[in-house]
């Protein structure tokens, strides 16, 4: 304690100031106004407007701590002096004395407060003239009575108008606190008014808002759930799942209603997931962390007496029908999976095996064959194809067509086979589609030349398989003539007005063979078509056939031409113009297609024909338009493309009419070998067209 003088008007007054006064006893030290909120950075004092105090503390309930007689004497004298001084005189704003009869007498408390304010005192000040509560000590901040928390002697105390409060709830810094009977902010778990609360153990002192807190209750090991300091009723997420609480007490097994949904907690109080059988009924609580009860769907264990206790539910009901499960479809009746049997669904017929699975593919059921597809549709459909049905022939396989055993040809494994009542036949003659065929000892339709019963026959090389009659035929080995019964002729024969000779195996003897069709020799340049070799060759072919020869304009109008025309569809370019640095032509396929059945003839694309096929056509009085390079050069990226007419054969070579009439002249002879090389390697630049292009005019 020390005396401090201050001037009041013209008089000096002594003030006793305690800077180390005790709040609940002696030995405490004074504190600065810079004390902070618990566990926070420095914070200014909480003003009266910022706080709400729920406890009223009397100003006259605490006796001043004991002092020495000299202190009491000094304090009394000072008090008397101050009182006398205050009563005797007043000063105006300029410090002049004013007669006390002219102003209201100021109380000693007001005078003391004014004195403290003028001194800007801070701390726990002995000031009984202000309040005698708590031994006359009051808390000042910068000369003003303070309301709020102040940290002192290792904890926080709550003051209202400078007076330390005792037990009660406090609001500060946006938090809720509680002070005990000595005015100290409490920590840890506290029982207040029969209610347990938790204020932390980290020197922050505020009431925790929620959590599963130990309060010593008789349930669940003394733990209950608090929310904002109150015992909570409802779900709370804890330790990885949801638990249900009533008045803070965790409940165990039972149904719960929350958030507009229905839930169930097990005997540990945890909200359940998945499917559960409860009181003999099955429920689905999901597997996605939502926990609510929803209609049961799927193959669910419900303890039934069949199929291991599993049944199928759909929207909560036992299901009848097909359901897709584990990679296939199963059939259920009242939720129970059925085994082997026929099933009707979606307007189709199905069959399930002894495991209840819908079957696919072909199946023999009760001695009959059925097809259930291999495309994941499973329904029974008319059987088609080479199907195993357990028959006694061909390894048990027979051919079905639209559910019926089939008689006739069917294409299978790269060729045609002949079936009778589904059974594949072996070697023999077959009649179909108005033609005659032959199958070998494996049942396959034959092609090309084939020996049958001592004679040779020809069945084509183009995948048509039928026997040729009354015509010249050819392969790489020779030229032949198939008679009216299909058998090759031998010896000397008069065919189409020409005598020819065949060897004993049916091959044509080409020695002395001379074919030379009379024809017009035409020059494309002279005819005004420097790019029109295809049309001029066709004109010469018509003349060789004895037909009327139309104009080139008529021919190319029929073919179609222009720079926007593809050579696969007509003539690309202008046949009546000069070269334009690119190939101008019409390819063999388009040429034959556009001129067929025009101008009194038929035309056929025989691209790929070899020398023997050309000879066979010439023997049949058919000239051939052939794609032969104009300069007898191929490759090298140069444009050698040209079209000419083969009109005859002599001495192992072809007679050719050239519409360009190059250095070889209008007509020339070329060996069949040279022709085959040139024709097989000539392709128009830039089109990727096939080589060996030829068109026969019939």
From TrEMBL:
Domain of life (superkingdom): Bacteria
Signal peptide feature range: 1-33
Entry-linked Pfam families: KxYKxGKxW_sig (PF19258), Peptidase_C39_2 (PF13529)
Domain Peptidase C39-like as annotated: residue spans: 523-659
Disordered, as annotated region: 34-109
Bias kind Polar residues: ranges: 34-51, 94-109
InterPro entries recorded: KxYKxGKxW (IPR022263), Peptidase_C39-like (IPR039564)
Alphabetic keyword roster: Signal
UniProt feature, compositional bias: Low complexity: 66-89
Keyword presence, Ribonucleoprotein: no
Name of the molecule in the record: Peptidase C39-like domain-containing protein
